[in-house]
Amino acid sequence: MSDSIIRCEHIVKKYGNFTALNDVSIDVPSGEIFGLLGPNGAGKTTTIRIINRIIKPDSGNVLFNGDQMNDDDVRRIGYLPEERGLYRKMKVGEQCIYFARLKGMSRQDAITELHKWFRKFQITSWWNRKVEELSKGMAQKIQFISTVVHKPKLLILDEPFSGFDPVNAQLIRDEILNLKNEGATIMLSTHNMESVEQLCDNIALINKSKLVVTGNTDAIRREYGFNRVAVTYKSEKETDLPESELYAQSSDDEYHGMRRKIIDVSEGAPKREVISSLNSLLEISSYEEVIPSMNDIFIKLVS
User: Fold this and answer.
1) pTM: predicted TM-score of the whole model, two decimal places
2) Which of 128, 118, 292 lies closest to 221 in space, CA to CA?
3) What pLDDT, in 10s, does the model give residues 169-200?
4) What is the CATH number of domain 4-87+150-222?
5) Sign of torsion, CA 191 196 200 203?
6) 284-296 confidence digits (pLDDT tens)
């Protein structure tokens, strides 16, 4: 694993008698896309606010590139909060320049970079329009641009696809991948599990203030598999399987001119015995493990 740009060590945060984070430790590898997942109220936003130094933990440390994080490090972070915040009476261009200046850019550098992004998103005609005239999706584009314009080393995006239609959501996904290819690290908090599978190299799942699982996305999908396999076989109609201690059938449907069964294999059942038993009943064309989706794993771990 590459070096961590952010390392949270044993973070605890309480609000009165309520514990928002309970001994949470996560590593965000440099140059990768890291998914921060969890149900509503799990502690994701608290984690993000601590990293951004908006609030302080009651105990624990946050390291930035291996050193204790300080206020100057925040300038190297681009943060898109879930709660959108634009000044409605300002013009769009001046609003973006203002945010860029807060991150240390000169006015001229900000204008140059912002015009590049406005052309890329095909919204140059909105430069002198007021923010209050923007649709929700358009306002989201403006905030995304304001988050990335100063070329931060770390991007923290909280529900970045909210408010977008499928076409514009894909546009943002493509830009996230482009930013990663240019060397940025992206921390992505989202309930969109399809985007997690498409984008995230590593994830951390928080539930009820505690870290449930963290690691490589594909490795977690395999680790939390449900002992489920897909078997395709040659037959014009469904073939029922007899009861077996080795497996249980969960579905059967037509599949590219053949049939496909989804089978739940019993815990600890030897693969060789399962295949041998099925082979005596079916004319098998393929036998493959079914890797669960992140959505399946999310539901399994937080239910």
Assistant:
1) 0.84
2) 292
3) 999 999 999 999 999 999 999 888 889 999 99
4) 3.40.50.300
5) positive
6) 999 999 988 899 8
